[in-house]
Amino acid sequence: MFKIDVPYINQSDKYPTGCESVTTVMLxxxxxxxxxxxxxxxxxxxxxxxxxxxxVLYGPNPWEYFAxxxxxxDAMGCYAPVICKxxxxxxxxxxxxxxxxxPYENRGVISCPKDIIVNRYYVYHSQAVALKPVPCAKG
Length: 139
Fold this sequence. Notes:
Elements: H1 19-30, H2 37-44, E1 47-48, E2 51-53, E3 56-58, E4 66-67, H3 80-90, E5 97-102, E6 108-113, H4 114-123
Parallel strand pairs: 1-4
Antiparallel strand pairs: 2-3, 5-6
């Protein structure tokens, strides 16, 4: 069995229904991202509260929002697309643009409309390079 060494975060005290967020932040820490669970929740997680209409409690669509708050024990949580959307914001994407480091003329972190980036991708023969962490062999 191969086990990766992912840092552990206890959700019990502060995030009673935040298993999705806490687990995601553990993975981000493993990948080298410096982000707290609170930063992830407050700045990236799409959340909507429950509402009462005509005496009936309604919640948001868990495919689109975290239903309630990870800080509250009566929240309902969310499904994978909500976490994917939150991760996309951290790995450099929003609805309209890609965000990345541009070393040209020392521009630093920039935002560029998705249509421009996609167009340039195809103009330059659909080339891209991606790195994926691979565990080192023991021995």
